[in-house]
Amino acid sequence: MRSPQLWLPPEVPFTVGDVGVSQDVLERAARRGAIVRLGRGVYIHADAVPSEATARHLLQAAARQRLNPDLVGSHGTAALAHDVPLLDRADTAAGPPTFTTQPAPGRRSSRHPRVSLAHLPRRHVSTAAFDLDVTSPVRTAVDLAAQSDLPSGLMALDAVARQLALTLVDDLRQFQDGLDPQLRKAVMEPLLDAAGVVGGHRSARRLAAVLAAVDPRRESPLESFVAGCIHQSELPQPTPQLLVETPEGDLYGDLGWKRYRLVLECDGMLKYKDQRSLHEEKARETRMRRVAYRVERCGWAGVNPDRVSFLLWLEGVLAEQGLRR
Fold it and tell me: H helices of 83-180, where?
């Protein structure tokens, strides 16, 4: 009697050429549920298929890349791989992967709407889950900023800039008057390098504006988004992580104006997951108020998409604190 052919399917996307079995064996394995077909001729071990949307998105990207090795996951796909902030993260995870590939001679655009043509130096490529090649965090943030408005682009760039800065210093809150020039130079050089590769005059102008506004002291995507909205207005710019000195010790407000003794706390109630953290935040707010600081809160629902109303509200709050127009 002929012995059954035993083999262990890989837990990364594979084709028939990657394993020592025939196409018939793969098809039988797929029918009995041992492997899952990801696309034309691409399979994976059934136990390796994730249930979480982001991981499934990256798996689909890896499957397509397996058939087209020149494709590099980029933009939303790379943002999911590196956890770079996205306004539409859930929609991106549920949608098809996005890629970048090197342009062929004489070719300036791609026929596929999810594939961009752009130069990709090796330093701008890294590896993610399922052996997926994706753009690096720095290149990803710059690619996103080149196609986004300033507040959305600032979310991505600030987050990556913060990661870079925290490899060089332990505490960014110490820089109340702005980053040390040498630190800022070290943080901005990789971003400027990537921006120099991303082509197009329109992209260059947009990137120049958002890069000038980058500040790694901001600690959350909403802080960056709010700061970006304010940056586009005529309102005075806030200090990230503003120092508020109290008799019980130093506190830091997400965004603040020392001149107007105003602190704007971002994320509102959403970041307080239990009664203890809520109580601690209320006590922290009380301490700020005792030293004559006004504390206001904002969340995503109040800022996006109704940015105009948010800015009008903020202008009114600043006016009450002494702003003169």
Answer: 89-94, 137-146, 150-165
